[in-house]
Write a structure and sequence with these properties.
Number of domains: 2
CATH architecture of the largest domain: 3-Layer(aba) Sandwich
Strand order of the largest sheet: 10-9-8-15-14-13-12-11
Helix content: 10-25%
Order of helices and strands: HHEHEHEEHEEHEEEEEEEEE
Number of strands: 15
Distance between the termini: 41 Å
Structural class: alpha+beta
Shape: elongated
CATH class of the largest domain: Alpha Beta
CATH superfamily of the largest domain: Vaccinia Virus protein VP39
Bound molecules: S-adenosylmethionine
Number of helices: 6
Amino acid sequence: MWTKRWMRRLGFWLTAATLSAAGAQAQIKEADRTGGPYVPTPQVVVDQMLRFGNIGEKDYVMDLGSGDGVIVLTAAHRLKASGMGIEIDPELVQRSNASAKKLGITDRATFQAQDVFKADLSRATVVTLYLLPGMMMNLRNKIYNELRPGARVVSHDYHFGDWEADDRFTFDVPEKEPINGVPSATLYLWTIPAKVSGRWQIKVDGVEAARDIELTQVFHKINGTLLNAAGSGLSDVRVKGEDITFSIWNGGARHHYRGKVKDNTMGGMVNLNGKDARWQAVKAAAQK
Ligand SMILES: C[S@@+](CC[C@H](N)C(=O)[O-])C[C@H]1O[C@@H](n2cnc3c(N)ncnc32)[C@H](O)[C@@H]1O
């Protein structure tokens, strides 16, 4: 259901697209600006995005549709992070690289003229976004598949639909009202989960019988089935970054597993009858 607030936002984006199309810098075809027109995130919102994403000097930040570069420039200049902006408009890329030069941070902040769909995201520890809702939906599979588990995604105002954010918050930004009619910003945060779909064999130290489980994952939602134990169940499977937790029911007893996922293996600790034991699991090769 479109709320009035969304209609106001979209109305603003369409006006901005028209103005931008009519503007002087017509080196790119406006149709290529598939993520929406150039509308900079206000500095106060950029500061909150960087704080919300917990960005620090070890991070490599990629802003997809980087406009004048404000997000990557702020992360590199104030927080000593590194990063890259990907932007379809070469004039904005030139402007961003000139700003990096002026700030003396060209070793940490670079900008590239490219369509976001062609960008290699594998190096990013954080991706930032301020793109139209349709583009968010089109980009989400690429982001989910290319970023490594534990990488964060911070978005200004728009989200990934049924891939629910791990966290979000809305705050007053009066300076946005004259721009898009809404005096607030909402930020969304996702942590990329490890990919766990498939069949896994679990072994617990000191317990002879192995257990097979089957996990099915759609973004953050994971369903699990215990395959070889009658009368027992698997529940509460959660993955955040590389961290996994789940429960296996054995009769009336609930055994809580916690551990880390590394590609096709996972392992950690489980409490069995009051004692902590180590567990490991290996993923079965996918059936052809
Ligand atoms: C709303 S602005 C956001 C700018 C910047 N990220 C910020 O938050 O200040 C969206 C930007 O994405 C760029 N853009 C749109 N479609 C794109 C695409 N397919 N590939 C790369 N950049 C794109 C636009 O030119 C515009 O500068």
